[in-house]
Amino acid sequence: MENNWSVYMLRCADDTLYTGVTNNITKRVHTHNNAPSGAKYTKARRPVVLVYQEDSFTKGEALKREAILRKLPRKTKLNFINKKHYPANY
What we know:
CATH class: Alpha Beta
Distance between the termini: 23 Å
Largest sheet: 3 strands, antiparallel
Shape: globular
CATH architecture: 3-Layer(aba) Sandwich
Helix content: 40-55%
Mean pLDDT: 91
Order of helices and strands: EEHHEHH
Strand content: 15-25%
Low-confidence stretches: none
Number of domains: 1
Strand order of the largest sheet: 2-1-3
């Protein structure tokens, strides 16, 4: 398996956060901002800005990491984004 998947967080125009996975971060952020298709959540909250990404996952690992990050409270996510590092237990 290739470790070419990323987990990412976007800050939306309404200041909400969106977490997702992709194997092409540049293309995915462009899709969130421009394409008529894509995530319904971000489509209504454009523009979005990439504020965090973790790389080198298999697809399965990325999906598991995404699930962990999505469950975190907003305040924890913001602290994490601002510090650019994350405790090992997350």
